[in-house]
C-alpha cells in the first residue's frame, strides 16, 4: 500500500475543512472499498481523514413524513432497522442482496453509493482504463465485457455501478444531504451518479470537498407492492448481472404509479420515468409489463460478451413487476 | 539533488513516511498498546505485530472471510479495516473464544460435526458463526447459508459447517451466542 498520513475528524465542519486543505485527501468510514482500492494501488491518497467519529449515526423521522438515514449508520443496521423493514422493505431487501454479512456490518450508508465499479480493468493497473487514468483508453470495450453496461455507456467507458442499495434508493426517489465549504445542499438520487461521457473518472455529482451527511427517504415506501430482483452468477455474495428494483402503487389491479430502477446495466442506477408512466392507469399484466420492459431497454447496446444482458434485463423487468404486483412469488 | 530531480519529474515532492500512531485495542480481554503506521490492517496488526496467527489471511480483499474477527461483538473482515481506525475497540479473535481449557460451544460443535478439512478457513468460519448467532437474524437453514456466504471453504465442508451452526443455535434457542 502507498504511504499516507492519517487524521480523525470529530465534526462535519472540520472534516470538510481538512479535506479542502489537504493534498489528495480522502475520507474513510467503513473502508470496505477504499482499503481494497488502496491495496490494488488504484486509489493512492496522501491523507486519510477518518470520519467514523462524526455524529451521523442515527435513523430518525424527517420533515416529509419519511426517514432520515445517517451517513454513518452501517448497511446492516439500516436493513435490519424496524422502521425500514416495515416501511421500506424494498430498501432492506436491496441492501441484504449486496456483499456479505461482515461487509454490511462495516459499510456505511454514505459510503455505499460512493463505491466504485468492479470492472476488472479498472482494478488492473497494468491495463488501460479511462476511469482510473483518463486518456489511456478503455480495455473493456474490445476486451472481456461480460459484466459491463448495455445502457448509457460511451466510447470512453462501459463500466457499471455495483451498488444494490443505490438502485433501491433511486427507485424510492431518495435525496442525499451533503455538506461542503459553502454550506449544505440536496442532491436527488437519480441525479447523483453520472453517465460516463468523456469524463468517466468522475462517478458522481458530489464535489471533492463535499461530504454526504444523510439520506432522506420520502414518505412513500411502496411496502405493499415491491420487489428487488437480483440476477447473478451465484445465489449469494456476488454482484448483479442485472437487478431490478420495482415498486408499484395499485388500486385493485390497476397501476397508479410505477417505479423501476435497474442495476448492473449502466454507469448509474438506470431509470426511465417516461417508460414508467406507460403503466399509469393500466392493468397489471404480463403483457403491459412486456411493453414497459421494451421501452426501458430500447436502445440498449451489447459489446460482445454482455449481449445476453439485453434479453435478460427485459425478462427481469417483467418478472420483477409480476412479483411487485403479487402475481408471482417473490424470489 | 536527487529529490529535486524527482520533484521535477513527478511534480510532487516525495512524502516522508508518517509518524507511527499510538493506539489501544482490547484484544481478547487484554488492553494492548501499539504504535503502528496508518496502513497496517487490523489483520496484519494481529498476525504480524501481536503474533495472534489464529486469524488467517486468505484473499486480503474481503472476499473469503478467513480473517473474520469480532469488533465490539460484531463480525467484520479484519483485512478491510485499518488498525488505527479500531483504536479503543474490543477485538475478539479465535484465540479469545475459549475460557481457559473450555472451548466455546461453536468450537466444540465444529469438532463434533467434523466441520472442516484443511482448517484454514475454520477460525473465520467460527468467528463468523458466533457473530451470526449474536445478530439473531438466521431462523432457517437457508438463512444460515445466506448469512454465512461471506466465508468461503475451498475444501467444501459447508454441509457440516451448517450442521455445526444449527446445533449451537438449537442449544442456545437461536437468539444469542
Molecular structure report:
With 331 residues, chain A is an alpha+beta fold. Among the domains of chain A are: 5-53, Uridine Diphospho-n-acetylenolpyruvylglucosamine Reductase, domain 2, CATH 3.30.43; 226-324, 2-Layer Sandwich (Enolase-like, domain 1), CATH 3.30.390.50. Helix content of chain A is 26%, strand content 20%. In chain A, the strands form 3 sheets. In chain A, strands 4-5-8-6-7 form a 5-stranded antiparallel β-sheet. In chain A, strands 9-10-11-12 form a 4-stranded antiparallel β-sheet, sandwiched between helices. In chain A, strands 1-3-2 form a 3-stranded parallel β-sheet, covered by helices on one side. In chain A, a hairpin with a 6-residue loop joins strand 11 and strand 12. In chain A, helix 10 (286-297) packs across helix 11. Chain A is globular. The relative contact order of chain A is 0.13. By secondary structure, chain B is an alpha+beta fold. Chain B folds into 2 domains: 21-96, Ubiquitin-like (UB roll), CATH 3.10.20; 105-172, Orthogonal Bundle (DNA polymerase, domain 1), CATH 1.10.150. Chain B contains 6 helices and 5 strands; from the N terminus they run αββαβββαααα. Chain B has helices spanning 2-10, 42-49, 105-112, 122-135, 141-147, 158-172, and strands at residues 21-27, 30-36, 68-71, 74-77, 90-92. Chain B has a 5-stranded mixed β-sheet with strand order 2-1-5-3-4, with helices on one face. In chain B, helix 3 (105-112) packs across helix 6 (158-172). The longest helix of chain B has 15 residues, at 158-172. Chain B is elongated. Mean pLDDT of chain B is 91; it is low at 1-9. Chains A and B meet through helix 2 and helix 6 of A and strand 4, helix 4 and helix 5 of B.
